[in-house]
Amino acid sequence: ALRPLGSEQRGTIFLNLAWLRTAALALRRLISRGTLARVALAQRLGIPPSAATQRQHGIDCACYYTENLFVRSPVEGHFCFEGRTAFERRERPLLESLSFEARDELLSMLEAEAARRRGIVPAAAARKARVAAEYSPLHPELWTLCERWLHRDFVALVEQARAGELRRPPQLAPGIYTLPVFSELFCRLLTEELAHFGASGLPVGQPNSMNRHGALLDELGLSAGLLDPLLSDWLRPLCAALPPLAAAGGASIDHHKAFVVAYRLGEDESLSMHVDNAEVTLNVNLGGGFEQGELLFYGRTAHPLAHHDWHDGGGVGHGVLHLGAQAHAALPITSGERLNLVIWMRSRARRREAGCPMCGQTDRLL
User: Residues 143-165: pLDDT tens digits?
Assistant: First the structure.
């Protein structure tokens, strides 16, 4: 028969577990310092990152370096930029419509964004290694996916999808679904973790070319234990069971770029109309007391097709699931802070067949 452990035995077990956690952390930091050294050496020698390394940091196509460069001022929009001379030749009517100062500002902004993109892979690798070496999480349990992080209705929805008995979630418009995703506990712990990380003083990457404030979750080390299984075990079965998403590559999504965006007065308050570099996008409300900030979805015209109010749409932990190619925008918040977790879900098989969502080509895929 099994006998209960004595206090001395339990104490020994707890000490051993504590030692193992300490040893694992020390090993992780040692490996991270080695990664930092390799990144620094590659930068000094001018060695370009491999295609595999670029893909690890969310770059799937060579068009990333020259297409869809976003600037806010003096003209807000996305531009192709292969250098100042080529841009001046191609965009002559636009440049002639601007003052000398505005023209120079636009060119300088585009050159700065192009330079940021060229250096993004080594910079991201260095940040990720430094975070792994120096950051002590507030809630280390977040680094492992478990069902208590998921909303119970989302769990039921995916179980229906796996069984082939999915009851379609509500739609704002064809192919734009609203649904619960995360538990309120998960959202609270993640927002606390992000605040803790922000207070650490460690460097943080820009979420994407349009959002300047937030965090890249892979750089926090959240991909392997949290986001990868969320994609493969939960989101892919759901996308495969929704025909509009499955037809666009949702049935074969196999990698992602995940980030949190922050909207605050005086910083990023809104987001102009755009499409995502994704086959399918999930956008979830993490909370924060805010007003307004609705999502607008567009059809084939400049007039909104549908809108999503974060307050009426279920609240914290609820989100929107839609095609990445579905044009959308975020209206300005009028007070407070809005935090959203966004996952761009991607399919290599779909891209080899249909091309990059941003440039439409297959021969530039990495």
Answer: 999 999 999 999 999 999 999 99
